[in-house]
Amino acid sequence: MQTILGIETSCDETGVAIYRAGKGIIAERVYTQTSHQRYGGVVPELASRDHVRKLAPMIEATLADAGLERVEIDAIAYTAGPGLAGALLVGASVAVALASALDRPAIAVHHMEGHLLSPLLEDPAPEFPFVALLVSGGHSMLVGVEAPGSYELLGETLDDAAGEAFDKTARLLGLGYPGGPEIARLASEGNPGRFDFPRPMLNRPGLDFSFSGLKTHTRQLVARTGPEDHADIAAGFQHAVVDTLIAKCRRALKATRMKRLVIAGGVSANQLLREELARTLPGQVYYPRLSLCTDNGAMIAFAGWFRRAAADRSGRIAVRPRWPLDRLPPMASSETVTG
Ligand code: KG4
Ligand code: ZN
Q1: Residue 19, beta-bridge partner list
Q2: pTM for the whole thing?
Q3: CA distance 18 to 57
Q4: In whole angstroms, what is the distance from residue 61 CA to residue 121 CA?
Q5: pLDDT 10s per residue in the chain (339 long)?
Q6: 114 CB less than 6 Å from ligand 1?
Q7: Ligand 2 center from residue 326 Cα (angstroms)
Q8: Which DSSP helix (H) or strand (E) runs through 231?
Q9: Domain extent listing, the chain
Q10: CATH class of 127-287
């Protein structure tokens, strides 16, 4: 199995990419839906409809970019979960239908495993074992990664995910969706030291996160200040989130005695987080290029290649809107060698 088409539709990005063993990603396209912006969050029904409109033409375009005919694809990997049920079903149905038509197998991929493995597409790739900080719109977790497919959940968010905290705070400040890049932009004009922000989880032991206290604090601050203070609030908020994430990463490295840290998921695109990690953990931090941080088809094609032993010809469409990462079956050892 050499050439894998990857399809991502778990949320509001339609992603299509082709991974070729030994070569890497040879073509990729991502379409970011804009219909959600005025609602301040993703509207599931709109997401599904947009995937329906975009996915099939994007597959054709990506194949054309790679100069490949459909029959040159050996398998089709798709995000089976976690994510929005309707959105997942669009990608899964198209993937399984196309696979059946071409007489090829389909591979159901776990979205967070896609994020987790994406730094391995970079050079230098991190060696195993490592601690992974996965921070996206729906998840915040620390994972001990012994090898591909061997994941131990070390800690996770007790309430909002890190990306969700950015999105909700952006809404409080009257900014658009997704909130992370908007907050980062506004924060660059602000003074992070002007207002005090709580870092409640730092005083408590353990590796879990919580962002609800920070959110409440920010809401109260916004209520008693004016628009001229928003840049300072954004800067203070961003610093508090970054500090909390970094402190938990350091704790996780210490607890596991691992030396390498991998960060992935949408929030790993945050520049302050990258700068502070590079400063506090020099030489130990790995992350994917910016285009692979937010949702994309490349990470799904790549994870599909790792999971190729699970390729399925039954025509069954498997979506799992809730799917714990640490319940994934182990990988066959032959699969863990990238090629
Ligand atoms: O991984 P992702 O694209 O989708 C999910 O799987 O959820 O992550 C999206 C999340 C959003 O909450 C968005 O606000 C956040 O990632 N994000 C950022 C940045 N870019 C995206 N958060 C902070 N700083 C950024 N530069
Ligand atoms: Zn994601």
Answers
A1: 4, 25
A2: 0.96
A3: 15
A4: 22
A5: 899 999 999 999 999 999 999 999 999 999 999 988 888 789 999 999 999 999 999 999 999 999 999 999 999 999 999 999 999 999 999 999 999 999 999 999 999 999 999 999 999 999 999 999 999 999 999 999 999 999 999 999 999 999 999 999 999 999 999 999 999 999 999 999 999 998 867 878 899 999 989 999 999 999 999 999 999 999 999 999 999 999 999 999 999 999 999 999 999 999 999 999 999 999 999 999 999 999 999 999 999 999 999 999 999 998 999 999 999 999 976 555 544
A6: no
A7: 16
A8: helix 230-256
A9: 3-116+293-336, 127-287
A10: alpha beta
Of all ligands present, the nearest one to the C-alpha of 167 is 1
Distance from the CA of 264 to the center of ligand 2, in angstroms?
A: 9
Looking at domain 3-116+293-336, its CATH architecture is 2-Layer Sandwich (3.30)
By the 8 A CB rule, do 141 and 325 touch?
yes
Q: Which residue has the tokens 């916004």?
A: 222
Per CATH, 3-116+293-336 and 127-287 having the same topology is answered: yes
Atom of ligand 1 nearest to the CA of 271: 26
Q: Which residue's structure tokens are 């375009």?
A: 61
